[in-house]
């Protein structure tokens, strides 16, 4: 097991990460909202990379998992900055981003910033723009007034907060309203029994991406997490399809 390390950001933030060097483009797994790098999908991707000699980076956004900080300070822009800082610090020249739920929004923002270094995207129940379509108008008004809203959390005992800073930053980073200038191969996986992110979001995303190499895989009985053994197997096959040919070409 590769040890957890910490990257120091300007201003004192410490970002927890795990990295295994290897061939080909580096896989970078981006967790969902209030999730971390200890999740089942992230762990499976990391273990696959270690077993096949691929490069892989896991990280916890500030205020999440092992990274210190206040979750209430977290925004997409802040977390994107942390992702890009780690990619730079580790000198990763080619990158494939895999994003789960909110991580699927962050993969677009980070991918746009990476430019030609971006070699692929894998979205797992990707949730771009959920501050727009996922929040009722009444709650948007509360957030706009500076109030935090709380929702029932089906995945844990504590309610899920949405803080006004995160919401405002999300609204400023919406991606589905115009063309997304990304040209690399993109694979989108989505369960059709996802109660949190409608699977139509992946279809909308596929339409907005400029890339001609976009494939959407719908799992008819899949839920939001897509963490069953069969779901993990599909994710790893998808990773292998994108990464292994490039890793072979780099030999």
From TrEMBL:
It catalyses: S-hexadecanoyl-L-cysteinyl-[protein] + H2O = L-cysteinyl-[protein] + hexadecanoate + H(+); mycophenolic acid O-acyl-beta-D-glucuronide + H2O = mycophenolate + D-glucuronate + H(+). Gene3D superfamilies: alpha/beta hydrolase. Pfam families: Abhydrolase_6. Residues 27-226 form the AB hydrolase-1 domain. One of its GO terms (molecular function) is hydrolase activity. Keywords: Hydrolase, Transit peptide. InterPro entries: AB_hydrolase_1, AB_hydrolase_fold, ABHD10_acyl-thioesterase. Its EC number is 3.1.1.93, 3.1.2.22. Acts as an acyl-protein thioesterase that hydrolyzes fatty acids from acylated residues in proteins. Regulates the mitochondrial S-depalmitoylation of the nucleophilic active site residue of peroxiredoxin-5/PRDX5, a key antioxidant protein, therefore modulating mitochondrial antioxidant ability. Also catalyzes the deglucuronidation of mycophenolic acid acyl-glucuronide, an active metabolite of the immunosuppressant drug mycophenolate. This is Palmitoyl-protein thioesterase ABHD10, mitochondrial. The lineage of its organism: Bacteria, Pseudomonadati, Pseudomonadota, Alphaproteobacteria, Sphingomonadales.
């Amino acid at each position: 097991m590769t040890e957890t390390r910490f990257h120091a950001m300007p201003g004192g933030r410490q970002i927890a990460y795990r990295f295994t060097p290897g061939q080909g483009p580096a896989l970078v797994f981006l967790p969902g909202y209030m999730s971390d790098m200890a999740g089942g999908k992230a762990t499976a991707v990391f273990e696959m990379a270690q077993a096949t000699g691929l490069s892989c980076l896991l990280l916890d956004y500030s205020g999440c998992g092992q990274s210190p900080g206040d979750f209430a300070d977290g925004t997409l822009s802040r977390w994107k900055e942390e992702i890009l800082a780690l990619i730079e610090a580790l000198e990763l020249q080619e990158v494939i981003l895999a994003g789960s739920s909110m991580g699927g929004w962050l993969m677009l923002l980070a991918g746009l910033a990476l430019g030609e270094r971006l070699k692929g995207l894998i979205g797992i129940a990707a949730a771009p723009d959920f501050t727009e379509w996922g929040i009722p108008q009444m709650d948007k008004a509360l957030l706009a007034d500076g109030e935090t809203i709380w929702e029932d959390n089906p995945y844990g005992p504590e309610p899920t907060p949405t803080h006004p800073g995160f919401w405002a930053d999300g609204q400023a980073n919406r991606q589905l309203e115009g063309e997304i200038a990304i040209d690399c191969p993109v694979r989108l996986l989505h369960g059709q029994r996802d109660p949190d992110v409608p699977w139509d979001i992946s279809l909308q995303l596929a339409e907005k991406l400029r890339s001609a190499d976009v494939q959407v895989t719908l799992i008819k009985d899949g839920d939001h997490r897509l963490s069953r053994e069969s779901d993990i197997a599909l994710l790893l096959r998808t990773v292998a399809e994108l990464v292994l040919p490039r890793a072979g070409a780099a030999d």
